[in-house]
Amino acid sequence: MRLFYAAIFTEKQLNTLKEIQARLHPLVLKGRFIEMEYFHITLNFLGEIPVEKIREYGRELDRAAKNLKPENLNFTSFGTFRKKGEHLIYLKADSHDSREWGLQTVTRKLKESIGEGDLRPIVPHITMVRRGILTAGNLQKLKEIRLETPPIAIGSLALLESVRIRGKLIYIPVHEVRLG
Fold first, then answer.
1. First-residue to last-residue Cα distance in the chain
2. Which of 30, 47, 55, 109 could bond 133 through an S-S bridge, CB–CB 3.0 to 4.6 Å?
3. What is the dihedral of CA 106, 156, 81, 140, to 10 degrees?
4. 158 to each of 32, 60, 79, 96, 154, how far by Cα in Å?
């Protein structure tokens, strides 16, 4: 199973994120807009993990998330990663929010306890569009957008399975820990 740890959002927060994503529609000529139920922040990508280890990975998430309170992040702008002429467009968290936040601590605990996964530090972001096509002018407009939205609360942490069904990438919760 292809697994990763992620921070996920409440229904109310997902609706707010969907409204933010709607600002991209006039700028993106073509692309795959992420459905709101798949918005998340990746904490640690694990890769292919045997089914028999899922329970262990879930327990590690329970331990790492113990005493973690719900956390708010401020998202103020969009960013892009360019790959083969297309853009992955994401919502960026404020830099002051990403320096010392509880999720960084949880991620560090998970990486230490399971000894697997991506060892790079988290750059908190939420993917909004995959395979986006933008004109140069629209790319510049996207970079100039400054969002003034209420803080977005992390509702829970989850171990998610990444599956491609009929060419579409979906995420299935395998284990979830509600915060608060």
1. 29
2. 30
3. -120
4. 24, 11, 25, 24, 11
The count of domains in the chain is: 1
Q: Which helix (H) or strand (E) holds 173?
A: strand 168-178
Structural domain containing residue 158: 2-178
Q: One digit per residue, pLDDT tens: the chain, 180 residues?
A: 999 999 999 899 999 999 999 999 999 999 999 999 999 998 888 889 999 999 999 998 998 888 777 778 888 899 999 988 899 999 988 755 444 456 667 777 777 776 665 556 667 789 999 999 998 899 999 999 999 888 888 889 999 999 999 988 899 999 999 987
DSSP state of 27: T
The residues facing 33 across adjacent strands are 129
CATH number at residue 47: 3.90.1140.10
Of 128, 92, 109, give the one whose Cα is nearest residue 177.
109
- The answer to whether 75 touches 53, Cβ cutoff 8 Å, is no
> What pTM does this model have?
0.87
Which tokens go with 40? 């998340």
